[in-house]
UniProtKB/TrEMBL annotation:
The keyword Transmembrane helix applies. Keywords: Membrane, Transmembrane, Transmembrane helix. InterPro entries: Glyas_Bleomycin-R_OHBP_Dase. It comes from Bacteriovorax antarcticus. The keyword Transmembrane helix applies. This is VOC domain-containing protein.
Length: 227
């Protein structure tokens, strides 16, 4: 299974995982309900009360161990976290006229400064320092966006994105770039507006945006600037 099909993401606070897909929630539900089923089945079979509780509680550590193994297999690599430490800027998009030469240039500059190249595709190449992304795109690949530049800012919750849309954009007659307001899911939720000089401004909630396990950072590479 590819990493862009994760069922669990690591917790924002503490150590562990949170389900993010229906598969993850289903596995979690099954683990929670099995002890209850064991208890009810033993009771229906007239098993002694002490034995009922024994089998019920004996199943718990095995089920938790199974859940942990599933989370390791289908989840992000866990680590201790207490909130998300990041810059307020999420990503900067740069549109370039010579894509091949530009990727070579930013490989030399950014990687030497400790940045990591995440994905290199025909549509874009992305780098991260762990909290911020710089995305290089060929000019012909972004003509439909009618803008050569994007500046995106983190929001700590989806509600902040919605509040920004209502309280800042709507009250100041600013239209969403996509025409529909904030869109997305629990992994990426954002609203965009067109700023001066054809700059797209984006306010986004994406708690694991720069993590290597994040879906957008695990696409297959199909561009080699050194070929």
């Amino acid at each position: 299974m590819k990493k862009n099909k994760l069922w669990f993401r690591r917790k924002t606070y503490g150590w562990g995982w949170t389900p993010i897909t229906w598969e993850g929630w289903l596995v979690t539900f099954i683990v929670l309900v099995i002890p209850l089923c064991i208890r009810l089945t033993a009771k229906a079979l007239d098993v002694e009360r002490a034995t009922q509780y024994f089998y019920t509680w004996a199943s718990v550590p095995m089920l938790l161990m199974a859940l942990v193994l599933i989370c390791f297999r289908y989840g992000e690599k866990p680590k201790w976290q207490w909130g998300l430490k990041r810059t307020k800027i999420a990503h900067i998009d740069l549109v370039v006229s010579n894509y091949k030469d530009s990727v070579r240039f930013y490989d030399l500059i950014l990687i030497s400064l400790g940045w990591e190249k995440l994905v290199s595709r025909l549509e874009y190449t992305s780098y991260t320092d762990g909290t911020l992304k710089i995305i290089i795109m060929p000019a012909q690949g972004v003509e439909k966006f009618k803008s050569p530049k994007t500046l995106a800012f983190y929001a700590e919750t989806k509600e902040i994105v919605d509040d920004f849309y209502r309280e800042v954009m709507l009250k100041n007659n600013m239209s969403a770039f996509n025409g529909t307001g904030a869109v997305g899911d629990n992994n990426y939720y954002s609203v965009q507006l067109a700023g001066p000089d054809q700059v797209i401004i984006e306010v986004m909630y994406s708690p694991f945006y720069c993590d290597k396990e994040f879906a957008l950072n695990n696409l297959d590479n199909n561009f080699n600037p050194y070929a």
